[in-house]
Amino acid sequence: DAPPVSRVIAIFGINEPTEIGAVYRRRCLLVEDDHKVEKMHTLDPSARLVSGKGGLTLKGGVLLETEKGAGKSGDGTVPFASMNHCRSWANDGCKVKVVELQGADHREILADSNFHQTVLKH
């Protein structure tokens, strides 16, 4: 659902490698102490991306979206699909303008001059 406002300007960075998933494997466990808790699963650094859509990379068991391939990727923290969700608010009558800043990192966007110029324009 759209927020209860008539217009939204969403400004976010794109095309930074962004975590979207992970590959885990079971750990073999031998618990000798009843009070000790062990993790049953661990990241699988030996996992390989056999086939799939372009733009995905698997590093150390962590699945990342990248700008390579057909789509765009997130800002290094938030996946692109999550940031882009605001476009669906237009279907609820909200006027939505999206400004994508190439290579702007999630944590560093407030120091990006393009971000400040965009805010001042609106």
Automatic annotation (TrEMBL):
Gene3D superfamilies, alphabetized: alpha/beta hydrolase (3.40.50.1820)
BP term (GO), one: lipid metabolic process
One Pfam family named in its UniProt record: LCAT
InterPro entries per record: AB_hydrolase_fold, LACT/PDAT_acylTrfase
Superkingdom to which the source organism belongs: Eukaryota
Annotated GO MF terms: O-acyltransferase activity
Protein name according to UniProt: Uncharacterized protein
